[in-house]
Structure formats: C-alpha cells, structure tokens
Amino acid sequence: MTTHIDRRLEELGITLPEAAAPVAAYVPVVEAGGLLHISGQLPFKDGQLVTGRLGEDVALEGGTEAARLCGLMLLAQIKKHVGDLSRVTRIVKLGVFVNSAATFTDQPKVANGASELMADVFGEAGKHARSAVGVPVLPLGAAVEVDAIVQIG
C-alpha cells in the first residue's frame, strides 16, 4: 500500500538508501515511550562516505548536502524500524554535528540540509527543535553526523 509519505517522497524524487549497519557497539534505533531515539547517521553518496572538514576542504554547500544525506539515512532507519514512514507523527529533535575548522561558524546553515528535508517530507510534523554543533573530528572522518528523536503513532 502506498502511503501519503511514500507519495511525497516520490514527488520529491527521493529514493531512500539502505539503512546502514552500526559501525560499533550500539543499535541504530531504540524505541521507548512512543519515541524513536536514532543513533547518529553518517552521509553516504553513491555508497561512499562523505568526508572532510567544513572551512578547510569542504564548502558550505557540500556540508549542507552531507547533512541532507544524513537525513535520508535517518529516514531509512525509521522505515526499517517501523516499516512505514506514515507512522511518524513528529520529528522532535535533530542533533547535527559538523566536522569544523576552528574558524568555521556556519553550522546552522549546514544543519539546514537535514532540517529542510524533514519539513519537505513531513510538512508541519517535520519542524523540530535542533542543535548544530561544530566538532574537530567525527567518526571515520565524516563531514557531518545527525541523530534524531522521532515521535511515532
């Protein structure tokens, strides 16, 4: 059965990637009290990890795209866990970690790549609280990592 979210993804030209397996000792999603706590997701493009540091070897546009790719992986993890993205009633919060040079201060603009994706897919339910934090390094040299708290019904 095709849901309204499936139709919306199709309208947006979005094909979800395969949900990534954990790279260490954790699970991708924990469900508790109607909330999904989704572990940090990394950006993959054409099967390759997007690496680098914003303000050094990655431009703002590349960072924003990396955050969007992380958002797509979040959607893939949700779908794998609950089976149907139409069960999402609210994207509660995103935590966006940006591999940043010491002088880079546009983390909120980078984070918009994931935030705008959620609003595009879920409409009002995709609008969320957010943190956007610059860090000196991320796992595997990733440019961006995004985690999430999502309410399901």
Automatic annotation (TrEMBL):
<dbReference type="InterPro" id="IPR013813">
    <property type="entry name" value="Endoribo_LPSP/chorism_mut-like"/>
</dbReference>
<dbReference type="Pfam" id="PF14588">
    <property type="entry name" value="YjgF_endoribonc"/>
</dbReference>
<protein>
    <submittedName>
        <fullName>Enamine deaminase RidA, house cleaning of reactive enamine intermediates, YjgF/YER057c/UK114 family</fullName>
    </submittedName>
</protein>
<dbReference type="InterPro" id="IPR035959">
    <property type="entry name" value="RutC-like_sf"/>
</dbReference>
<feature type="domain" description="Endoribonuclease L-PSP/chorismate mutase-like">
    <location>
        <begin position="8"/>
        <end position="143"/>
    </location>
</feature>
